[in-house]
Amino acid sequence: MNDQAVSSNSVPGCLLRLSWMIGGNIALFILAIYIGRNQLPLLSWPDFAYWAVIIGMIVFRYADIRFFAGQNAYGEPSTINDWRKYAITAILVSALLFAGAHLWGTWPA
Q1: Is residue 40 part of a domain?
Q2: Domain-embedded: residue 2
Q3: Please, are residues 13 and 69 in contact by the beta-carbon 8 Å criterion?
Q4: Residue 74, number of CB atoms within 10 A of its CB
Q5: How many CB atoms lie within 10 A of CB 36?
Q6: Could you write out the three-class secondary structure of the chain?
């Protein structure tokens, strides 16, 4: 792993982990509901905010692994391979949620 990694139990490490695990997902959920309920067109400001949150979550996950000794679900040190899997899954699931939010906005009442 990284010889200079800070403990995963440090305050910055915990805040970073909470950001990508909880805060980002809550923000995505709220933005998806906002996009769907307000029937917004593609490329509106919530769309950009939505994708910015996803990018932020992926970058924060990388920083968690690289600088704060992030762990996987089994309590083992995370690797760059874990990060790649997370990034791909996050993008795919977020794209489905994004499409669903826009389709919800156009669904007949």
Answers
A1: yes
A2: no
A3: yes
A4: 6
A5: 20
A6: CCCCCCCCCCHHHHHHHHHHHHHHHHHHHHHHHHHHHCCCCCCCHHHHHHHHHHHHHHHHHHHHHHHCCCECCCCCECCHHHHHHHHHHHHHHHHHHHHHHHHHHHCCC
User: Which residue range forms the structural domain that includes residue 18?
Assistant: 11-106
Looking at the predicted structure, is the pLDDT value of residue 45 above 90? yes
| φ/ψ (deg, to 5) at 69 | 50, 50
Q: Does residue 4 lie within any of the structural domains? A: no
Query: 65 is written with which tokens?
Result: 């692994």
Output the six-digit token pair for 64. Answer: 């968690």
Residue with tokens 């669903």: 100
Q: What is the pTM of this model?
A: 0.85
Specify which residues 77 forms β-bridges with: 71
Vertex 86 angle, CA 71 and 77, to 5° = 15
Residue 25 within a domain: yes
Measured distance CA(102)–CA(82) in Å, rounded: 30
| pLDDT tens track for 48-58 | 999 999 999 99
User: What is the count of structural domains for the chain?
Assistant: 1
